[in-house]
């Protein structure tokens, strides 16, 4: 059970990321850094959100597409004190597709936001149980949107940015205790952007910073074969916006922005079932703030449960899980007009994922 914190990476793949605060998806998990010995893993998750709303008597239909979530990690010891990890993840994303022919005011609107990140992290262990870690993150971001009711399209070309992370951890292996605190810097992007508004094209550069964040993760043994684990993640979403020149000039608002920062709370229990098999259950919660949100992300808060199994065989570890999340109700508005207000209620998402790891 002492390695159970690694399953939080799988939880992030399937825990209703489409409903997470802002456009967060991977949770920027670095738990592979704390694996014993040399280790590598790959993971795949699939999330199927069901998000719909109504405005002026018309239903939007399901506007959130199913999407995959991929991850890969490699960790290696250099000596007794130094180790390093290389992690690939997809930290942020959005897949919006309002069905056409519904009569809904934003029918036919689409939006995509795609990111890919590779992190290189170095860890140094002290003799006291403390350790420090730091590294660099290289990230790409691209985005596009189409809003027929505004006769508007935008295409932001892929851009690469660099950020950093730094953290500290404390471990007490005899009781399976680990507490890790990690800060992730913002990453600046400058996307070459082509907009077309009412038939008039505009070429410009859209500046955006993916937000800074802090992860606090913990685990501890609470009984023989039983582990308590969880964490808190803060993301500075109130400082994030995507504001192409033509769109903001016409509406007075960014294309995407968020009024509140997000705190995500996770708590779970893992239990050893046999010598090779263990199971877990975890609850994830984000507060519903009640403010109006963007039609390209019409969610506000969430409450989800994740069930997982983990099987160990020689040097291979296979983890799998499923998640169900209730998505918080939200109200959207465009250009501060009460006539363009929509209500999104009774929404949910379902996720499933698998992770395969090898020790060598």
From TrEMBL:
Membrane topology value: Multi-pass membrane protein
InterPro entries: OMPP1/FadL/TodX
Record's signal peptide: 1-20
GO MF assignments: long-chain fatty acid transporting porin activity
Keywords from the named record: Cell outer membrane, Membrane, Signal, Transmembrane, Transmembrane beta strand
Lineage top rank: taxon: Bacteria
Main subcellular location of this protein, as a coarse class: membrane
Localization per record: Cell outer membrane
GO cellular-component term (any): cell outer membrane
Family (UniProt): Belongs to the OmpP1/FadL family.
Name of protein: Long-chain fatty acid transport protein
Lineage: Bacteria, Pseudomonadati, Pseudomonadota, Alphaproteobacteria, Rhodobacterales
């Amino acid at each position: 059970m002492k390695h159970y914190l690694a399953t939080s990476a799988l939880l992030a793949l399937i825990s209703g990321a489409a409903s997470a605060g802002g456009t967060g998806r991977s949770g920027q998990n670095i738990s592979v850094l704390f694996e014993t010995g040399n280790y590598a893993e790959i993971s795949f998750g699939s999330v199927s959100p069901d998000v719909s709303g109504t405005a002026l008597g018309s239903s939007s239909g399901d506007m959130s597409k199913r999407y995959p979530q991929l991850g890969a990690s490699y960790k290696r010891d250099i000596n007794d004190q130094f180790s390093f990890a290389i992690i690939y993840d997809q930290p942020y994303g959005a897949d919006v597709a309002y069905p056409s022919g519904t009569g809904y005011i934003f029918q036919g609107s689409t939006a995509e936001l795609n990111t890919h990140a590779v992190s290189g992290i170095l860890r140094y262990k002290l003799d006291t149980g403390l350790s420090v870690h730091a590294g660099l993150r290289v990230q790409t971001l691209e985005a596009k949107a189409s809003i027929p009711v505004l006769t508007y399209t935008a295409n932001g070309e892929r851009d690469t940015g660099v950020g950093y992370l730094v953290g500290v951890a404390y471990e007490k292996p005899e009781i399976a205790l680990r507490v890790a605190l990690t800060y992730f810097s913002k990453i600046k992007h400058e996307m070459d952007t082509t907009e077309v508004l009412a038939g008039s094209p505009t070429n410009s550069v859209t500046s955006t910073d993916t937000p800074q964040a802090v992860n606090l993760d913990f685990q501890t043994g609470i009984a023989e074969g039983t582990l308590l684990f969880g964490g808190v993640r803060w993301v500075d979403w109130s400082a994030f916006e995507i504001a192409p020149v033509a769109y903001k000039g016409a509406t007075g608002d960014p294309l995407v922005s968020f009024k509140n920062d997000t705190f995500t709370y996770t708590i779970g229990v893992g239990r050893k079932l046999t010598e090779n098999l263990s199971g877990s259950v975890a609850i994830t919660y984000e507060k519903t703030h009640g403010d109006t949100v963007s039609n390209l992300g019409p969610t506000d808060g969430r409450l989800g449960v994740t069930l997982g199994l983990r099987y160990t065989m020689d040097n291979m570890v296979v983890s799998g899980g499923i998640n169900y999340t209730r998505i918080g109700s939200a109200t959207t508005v465009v250009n501060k007009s009460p006539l363009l207000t929509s209500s999104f209620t009774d929404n949910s998402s379902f996720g499933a994922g698998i992770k395969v790891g090898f020790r060598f």
